[in-house]
# Entry
Amino acid sequence: MDSIPYCTHQFSRPSNHALVRMRQRSIPHEVVGYLLDFAKAVPAGQRAERHLFDRSSWQRLAAFLGGRTKEIERYRNTFAIVANGVVVTVGWRH
# Structure
């Protein structure tokens, strides 16, 4: 991921739980930033939002990356749960 631009989103430090899940699930910090910058946000209950890539948000990310999404294609099915501006967990959609 060295050759792709960093995300522009400057989010606060993720929760400890999210950091553990990022490590366990091999989801890089940059991908979480892309989720917050480009992905669609849908309600996740209890005033939280689930950020996930749909077709249009993935195309916006591809435009930002200049078509270099091949390097991060494997992260297309990731999501982040955000509550009160804090990333509380991340995972993979099945």
In short: Strands lie at 40-45, 48-52, 78-83, 86-92. The chain has three helices and four strands. The mean pLDDT is 88. The chain has one domain: 16-92.
